């Protein structure tokens, strides 16, 4: 198999990244039962910093290894349920064996308490970076941003200043979980602009996106470090320790290979959540190892949340305006309908018409007797064939159909991509006698990917058959037959309009029946 094949996403999605059984080596981990505080597992490096005479400590209480004040703070947190869902207990401490100060974070998850002790790495170059943060000023700038692009640029710049990465990117997912770098702030001497490039959904597979929806940030100090295994992780029939919320979880080796191919060593990603959906990631890149202290990591997460809120405001405002305009047009169309005997004329003549809805460039109504068209549409015979096709192919009870790639459905009008790459259609009533429809043209169709999106699968067999692609050279795809997508609320509005038409048609028929009967 030498030919490039599309990646089988299920291969990437199967890696259980929440239970890697190892952590990054600058930390030490203890996992204990959340009720008894008995130690269940510990990282192989734990004896280096904690009472070695107690090793192996499995079965002992956390108090055997940690200061009493910290263990009681953990107990209090457990009782008050303030250690779950990613919430952390944070302390700094010095340990009898070592002089350095450690950062301690503890959290509870799935019946375990997980304690992480973090030592800042010794290499001085790893500390040089972070500049003091003026969070208030950063938030003010974000609030003043008028557009999404502007807000994203400000966020990238401020978070880079705060964390000291050589590059910070704002990465945004589309509806199919492909993504695009929409803003980037980086050191001038790194000739590697990723801005405007697209990346396929398989670069950040489904289980990773699910995990990032729960746990909000990841920091890798050194891509090439050797992970430290958890000892006794799967012993005595225990389920492996779930590291979903662990700060020092070791990341997927496949992803670390991807980072190598990108030329990235130290890295970060912080989840950008908008209306409970993973909207994107704030991504940090560094060509050398890079350490970010816990308090700076927390501040970067807060600022990312500030950005997410601004996104929600900006997108919400734009959506609200567009919906208001549609409701207004819809209201005028329905009022027109009720005053008219001829619903076809009422929706296609004068102002407004069907064409004022949904950003369509063509629209029309197909009935038994007539095909009435406005704007740029396929010719009448094709439109009638399309209506027949829809009548046949929609499942019973379905009244609407929507697509941005009509050509993929082998529909009768599909040959006319110029006028009808996108189709939104709604039958009037369950008899499917009349059809309202809207069309949109093919959009200028090149997508610039950061590397050939079909190339992540390399020849091979077994579990290592899937590798991240090696090249991030710009790769231009000519995309044919795609229109811009239709928002779901537009489909709902089209169905409502069809309902209103149904009411009018019924009333008119009753009137005719009365007159003739
Ligand atoms: C995770 N992939 C990720 C992450 C990013 C990307 C940001 C989050 C982890 C982190 O914090 O670094 C991808 N990085 C990108 C993209 C850009 C970038 C798109 O800078 C563009 C600007 N990856 C593959 C393939 C597989 C794969 C083929 O390309 C699977 C076979 C897997 N990516 C993969 C996995 C993770 C991941 C498993 C989760 C890593 C983890 O959290 O353990």
From TrEMBL:
Keywords: ATP-binding, Chromophore, Kinase, Nucleotide-binding, Phosphoprotein, Photoreceptor protein, Receptor, Sensory transduction, Transferase, Two-component regulatory system
Nucleotide-binding found in the keyword field: yes
Coiled-coil residues: none
Domain of life: Bacteria
Every Phytochrome chromophore attachment site domain range: 147-294
Protein family according to the UniProt entry: In the N-terminal section; belongs to the phytochrome family.
Protein name (Swiss-Prot/TrEMBL): Phytochrome-like protein cph1
Organism: Methylorubrum aminovorans
Upper lineage: Bacteria, Pseudomonadati, Pseudomonadota, Alphaproteobacteria, Hyphomicrobiales
